[in-house]
Write a structure and sequence with these properties.
Length: 172
């Protein structure tokens, strides 16, 4: 995954909980490909029909509240969402998203300056969010190199495995 990506924004409000991100009736699997078709279906039944790989979710405060299930960020990532921008994230969702390699940015100004369907460009290294339709730029806290590496490798477990393998190769 690159540090830069762009796509259409799909905007939702405050308190989008994990039960509407991926309804409990689909929790018999943790396979992102099986979760993805049901991503946000109880909040926006047309989400998966209109979104394209690389699109972004933009939301209000407390995104990912509710249960601590890792299925919610897995469903979002499996659906092809490149990034979630929100006013704020529930702490457990924040950690779960990074653990599975889903980029997330907190930026209240961007949330209020982006409408559904507008094209958005994100640069994780710079913390820059650009609304390509309006030309407005917003600043979020940039991802430090270790988090960009973690996301690029697909999350915490793949990143640790890759680092261990690098150490094994260097020790030979």
């Amino acid at each position: 995954m690159s540090d830069r990506f762009s796509g259409k924004a799909w905007v939702y409000g405050d308190n989008v909980d994990t039960d509407v991100i991926i309804p409990a009736r689909y929790l018999s699997t943790s396979n992102p490909a099986e979760l993805a078709p049901h991503c946000l279906e109880d909040l926006d039944s047309g989400f998966m029909k209109k979104m394209e790989p690389g699109d972004l979710i933009v939301a209000g405060g407390n995104f990912g509240c509710g249960s601590s299930r890792e299925h919610a960020p897995l469903a979002i990532k499996g659906a092809g969402v490149s990034c979630v921008i929100a006013v704020s994230f529930a702490r457990i969702f924040f950690r779960n998203a990074l653990n599975i390699g889903l980029p997330i940015l907190e930026c209240p100004e961007a949330v209020s300056g982006i409408e559904s369907g507008q094209r958005v460009e994100v640069d994780l290294a710079e913390g820059r969010i650009l609304n390509l339709d309006t030309g407005k730029a917003f600043s979020a806290k940039p991802f430090p190199p270790f988090l960009r590496d973690l996301v690029a490798r697909g999350g915490l477990v793949p990143a640790v495995r890759a680092r261990l393998e690098e150490r094994r190769r260097n020790a030979r």
